[in-house]
Each structure stands twice: as structure tokens, then as C-alpha cells.
Amino acid sequence: MIKAKNLTKKFKDFIAVDHINIEVPKGQIFGFLGPNGAGKTTTIRMLTGTLKPTEGEIEILGLDMKKNEIEIKRRIGVVPDEPKIYNHLKGFEYLEFVMDIYNTNNSETLNRINELCKAFEVNYLEKLISDMSHGMKQKLILISVLMRKPEVIFLDEPTVGLDAKSAKILKELLKKYSEQGTTIFLTTHILEIAEKMCDVIAIINKGKIIAQGTIDGLKKQSGSKNKTLEDLFLELTAQEEDIKRIVESL
User: Fold this and answer.
1) Nearest by Cα to 222 from 128, 47, 164, 231
2) Each residue's pLDDT tens digit, 30-57
3) Which residues does the UniProt record annotate as the domain ABC transporter (predicted)?
């Protein structure tokens, strides 16, 4: 459902993503982890067609991104790291706008909006987006994606700004969708979420994928079954000793 081969992005002399390879089958929750600036968001932007790669090939749903960009965008959903939406619209106007773009302005979608609004306690669709908090906007973005039931969903730090109940509902909903065949590509800094949710995890650092596999597989590679994902992450990204040094110096 998601395939990247030798995917690379350069910004002048800086290599943000360096010849990475990814394959995600149908129904899998794929966790993409890394420190700030490691290349996670740049990778998602390339995979979703909002940023052109310098090198490499991308296939989504078996379709070549270079030849089928609009068809791919019609069938996927993207929750970005920042909820950048039109401030001059009201909440319901934004959802209507998205429905019209995707030609899904029908009773089925409206029913799903009502269900999702109840689930995430969104009772502010009459409010201007400019008057909404970050968390309120994040819920609106989530509803605008989930109401369409896309075949592949990309989420970049989706729980940032959400209250505990909404974050839990989102996590359980994504699990349910994956069981129904939806493919999930997820980035998060909350390693506990990744450890509990993801079928496979890839860790990127300085633009390169340095580890990839199941949680159990990564633990076996490290030589210890008792390590948490946090331990593995810090060890692989060479931050463990740095943390000790910083704490000792404070």
C-alpha cells in the first residue's frame, strides 16, 4: 500500500532524507520515529505528494506517484503536524468544503460527521476557525479525514493538542480501522503510543533509517528483551549518553 525506493530529499547541500526504503502492506500500522529534524515530516510530505523528492520512487496503493498524483490524493487521508486550515471559515463550512473537493457530500458522510463529532466532543462547528484552539483545530482536521474513510491514512503527530479522552479514542479507532484493512502511517514522539499501537516501527536519524522491524524484533537485535522502546530509541539514536551528561551537568 505504501512503497518508497531510495527516497531522497536534498535542500541545496543539506540531505534531509537519504535513500530510504519503506514497504507497508495493507492493514498495517507503521510507526515512523525519529528525533526532531530527523526527516520524518519531509518523508511524509513526499509520500503524500506535497513535496517532490530529489531522487527515488514512490508507489501508493500500487500507483506511481509521478503518474497518478491526483488519483492517489483522492484515495488517501493526511493529518499534518500543524492544523493549517482556513481561518475565515466556520467549522461546518470547512467540512463542507472538504466534502465538495472529494465529492462525498452525501448522507453517509454527514452521518459519519455526526458520529465523529459526538465521539470527539466537537460541538463548535458554528465557530470561526480563527477562534478555535490548537486542540479544537486538530479534532476538526481529524474529522475531515476520518469522515471519508480513506484507504491509507498518514498522521504526523496526531495526538498533539488532544485531550486524554480524544487521544485514546483516536488510538482505538485507528486500531479498528487497521483491522478493517486501512493502512496507517504514523509519526509520534510519544514512544508509548508507538509501542502499543504499531505493528512495525522504523527509526530514522539524520535522514537515514537506522532500524526497522517489530518491537520484538528490535529488542532481539539489541540483545535484550527487557528494554522498552524508549531505551531502544535513545540507544539507536545515540542520545542516551548525551542525556546522562546533560543531567549530570545541571
Assistant:
1) 231
2) 999 999 999 999 999 999 999 999 999 9
3) 2-231
